[in-house]
Amino acid sequence: MKTIAIDFDGVIHKYSKGWHDGTCYDEPIDGAEEFLKKLMEDKDVSVFIFSTRSPRQIKRWIIKNMPLTFGAMAVDCGQMWSGQDGYEVKVIPFWVKFWNKKDVLGITRKKLPAVAYIDDRAVKFNGDWNDISLPHLLG
User: Fold this and answer.
1) What does the buried/exposed string (b/e) look like for 43-68 if buried means 16 or more CB atoms within 10 Å of the residue's CB?
2) Are 16 and 26 in contact, with CB atoms under 8 Å apart?
């Protein structure tokens, strides 16, 4: 199974005002729900969201803002809520070292192993530090 990691702010959540007051105040980026659904439908893929935000805060936002894909069950500390049909959303416990759950969108503050990370602030490292431009990074 392949694991895909996706950043939350600026990738799923529009994040138009930056951190602002610490709330998840914005709507989803266009196409985010559809993309997540396609990933979740793949029989050989597991998906998790990573962020410095509280995973529970993100879980609530996902269920509210992506109800067609993630409205079914939300699992947190063993409690389940039922709603529409959809994929399960689960806060990944802090002791978990990797994520390979099929049909469950995980949410964590940790950088777990994955074959790919989708992040709006990433700089790809190709093995040569000379290819990283400090002026470009620092603005």
Assistant:
1) eebbbbbbbebebeebbebbbebbee
2) yes
In what order do the strands lie in the sheet containing 104-108?
Answer: 79-82, 73-76, 88-91, 104-108, 45-50, 2-7, 116-118
Phi, then psi, of 75 in degrees rounded to 5: -115, 125
Here the tokens at position 102 are 């099929």
CA angle 72, 110, 17 (to 5 degrees): 75
Q: Which fold has domain 2-138?
A: Rossmann fold (3.40.50)
Tell me the pLDDT tens digit for each residue of 82-136. 444 689 999 999 999 999 999 999 999 999 999 999 999 998 899 999 988 888 7
Q: Around Cβ 15, how many Cβ atoms within 10 Å? A: 18
Q: Does the pLDDT of residue 80 top 80, yes or no?
A: no
Burial environment of residue 79 by CB neighbours within 10 A (0 to 12, 13 to 18, 19 or more): exposed
